[in-house]
Amino acid sequence: MNTGPSSAATTTATSTGSGPVKTVLTRRTGPLAVLLGACLALLPPTAAHADSIRARQWALDAMHTQEVWQTTKGKGVTVAVLDTGVEPDHPDLAGNVLDGKDMVGFGAEPGDRAWARHGTAMAGIIAGHGHGAGNGDGVMGIAPEAKILPVRVILEDGDPARAKARSTRGNALADGIRWAADHGADVINLSLGDDSKSAHPEAGEDEAVQYALKKGTVVVASAGNGGEKGDHISYPAAYPGVIAATAVDRYGTRASFSTRRWYATVSAPGDDVIIADPDHKYYEGWGTSAAAAFVSGAVALLKAAHPGLTPAQIKKLLEDTARNAPADGRDDSRGYGFIDPAAAIKKAATLKPKNLQAAAYGEEYFGSGPDAAKSDDDATSWTAGLAGGAGVLLLIAAVVVLRGRRERYDF
Fold it and tell me: Are 184 and 212 in contact (CB under 8 A)?
């Protein structure tokens, strides 16, 4: 289980609705660990201000979005978000969410607190378009003109049906991957995974991933949040052909929680990330879930600019154009470096589409992998250049705020 540090803090929040602004106060003492699929921990929050939501989205600058948006904002690309569901009426996502599929079939429903929190957060990172006059408020995603195809494959923490889901959910993830590939997904985002000590590959999930890749659908997954707990292998990130995202902070330093393993492809923002919630408030979170969502958004931009590229070509492009590459070109902490969609789009212009193929690791990819490198993670300036029954990997922290009346607020 991923658990946040033990401390006390206060948090305020603001509603994004058209009614009066409501500020809410939350105080949490000690580690607050909750389960989502298998693990989603809420960290002790810190104060922030809602009128600086866009300014706090440091990932937009780090990923050179202003440059890449001169070419595309993801129009014409569909990203399937396999998660806890997505709230289609959130003001930052309205119009960008397609009709999806519920592979679970029970549990919380729209309007319940235990509904679509994690999935909505991931969808906002990928395709949020902000709201208000001139889109000046709210979360802006990496590919704000892409469409989100929600596929519910896990339940939120707090859902009373979670215990039942452990024994009856069956092959929801594998079925969801195949369904998304068959229903127009250009990219599949898997901000979830099993990085427990007992994590192991599931043949049905692996086969579903290979099915999607062969159909030309790019598959992105979070590398895992086990960096401080043994760096256990995480699935589905370790399946062959998957683009596995590790997390870094705003300085380009590997996030301490981010799993270090041989399957790491590229790194992306995963710390102090502003996310949208179905309650129309904003939260600050950390985790490789967020990193995977940023990578999926970047892939959507690349697919929009060069729709003929295969999943294998896209993975190689991201590796070849990543910034802040490790000293030896690649390591288990950050893969090939920090994702750079603008550079990938430019290099893609020199390529020609090839036959569809899945990039596999070969017979040994189910092995334990190399020992995690214990390298120093010095801060680097940006200018310098579940599967099975396991857990969602975003850790939600603080509620972002505006001024107003304070009330008690509990998750």
Answer: no
Over 60: is that where the pLDDT of 384 sits?
A: no
Contacts of residues 62-70 at CB distance under 8 Å and 24 or more positions apart, as own/partner, are 62/250, 62/269, 62/338, 62/382, 63/142, 63/268, 63/269, 63/294, 63/298, 63/339, 63/340, 63/341, 64/340, 64/341, 64/342, 65/142, 67/342, 68/301, 68/341, 68/342, 68/345
* Better pLDDT: 106 or 267: 267
pLDDT at residue 80 is higher than 80:
yes
Structural domains of the chain sorted by starting position, each given as residue range(s) with its CATH number in brackets: 54-372 (3.40.50.200)
C-alpha torsion 64→186→172→278, nearest 10: 50
The pLDDT confidence band at residue 353, using thresholds 50, 70 and 90, is low
**pTM confidence score:** 0.79
> Would you give the end-to-end CA distance of the chain in angstroms?
19
In sequence order, what are the residues at sequence separation of 6 or more whose Cβ sits closer than 8 angstroms to the Cβ of residue 120? 85, 86, 87, 90, 93, 276, 277, 278
Amino acid at 101: K
Please give the mean pLDDT across all residues of the chain.
78
Q: Is the pLDDT of residue 327 over 60?
A: yes
Catalytic residues: 83, 118, 289
SS (H, E, C) the chain: CCCCCCCEEEECCCCCCCCCCCCCEEEEECCEEECCCCCEEECCCCCCCHHHHHHHCHHHHHCCHHHHCCCCCCCCCEEEEEECCCCCCCCCCCCCECCCEECCCCCCCCCCCCCCHHHHHHHHHHHCEEECHHHCEEEECCCCCCEEEEEECCCCCCCCCHHHHHHHCCCHHHHHHHHHHHCCCCEEEECECECCCCCCCCHHHHHHHHHHHHCCCEEEEECCCCCCCCCCCCECCCCCCCEEEEEECCCCCECCCCCCCCCEEEEEECCCEEEECCCCCEEEEECHHHHHHHHHHHHHHHHHHCCCCCHHHHHHHHHHHCECCCCCCCECCCECCECCHHHHHHHHCCCCCCCCCCCCCCCCCCCCCCCCCCCCCCCCCCCCCCCCCCCECCEEEEEECCCCCCCECCC
Q: In this structure, which amino acid lies at residue 401?
A: V
The Cβ of residue 22 has, within 10 Å, a number of other Cβ atoms equal to 17
What's the full length of the chain, in residues? Answer: 411
